[in-house]
Design brief:
Elements: E1 7-12, E2 19-25, E3 31-33, E4 47-49, H1 79-89, H2 98-104, H3 108-151
Parallel strand pairs: 3-4
Antiparallel strand pairs: 1-2, 2-3
């Protein structure tokens, strides 16, 4: 029979006999910080913190380039597709809905990649619009010149 290690740290208020676990290291290796009776430990994560984590830095690593949005330039949706997605589901193409986020939360790495993809798509649309604008400006210039010639 295996001995399972369960370490519980207790915080005791100085004037009461009430004790509450504030940190638990479970035998599975999961660490729970906060009111341990109020925190569930779903998924295959190792750290669960009740009221959040404050830090000056977070570094997220990628296992492969496929986890990033480099392919965004190859599959930019038309603006009509974006408008259809917004009208139909009230959010952008390839972005989760608010109800999905409430149900499932999100992985920081994948959300960063999704947001970068949206930014890359915006830049592509801006570049295309700038090029179209230059063509239209040249056409306007030609039309103005032809009108001036006809007046003479």
């Amino acid at each position: 029979m295996k001995f399972k290690l369960l370490i519980i740290l207790f915080f005791s208020a100085a004037l009461t006999s009430y004790s509450q676990a504030v940190m638990v290291l479970k035998s599975s290796g999961k660490v729970v910080i906060g009111d341990t009776s109020q925190i569930s430990t779903p998924g295959d994560y190792n750290l669960y913190v009740q009221h959040g984590v404050l830090t000056e830095r977070v570094k997220v690593s990628l296992k492969s380039t496929s986890e990033w949005s480099d392919s965004a330039f190859n599959n930019t949706p038309d603006l009509s597709q974006v408008a259809e997605s917004i009208n139909k589901s009230n959010h952008l193409v390839d972005m989760p809905s608010a109800s999905d986020l409430v149900r499932n939360g999100y992985e920081l790495k994948s959300m960063d990649a999704s947001l970068l993809q949206q930014i890359e798509w915006l830049w592509q649309h801006m570049i295309r619009m700038e090029n179209e604008n230059k063509v239209l400006q040249e056409e306007i210039k030609i039309l103005k010149n032809s009108l001036l010639i006809k007046k003479d």
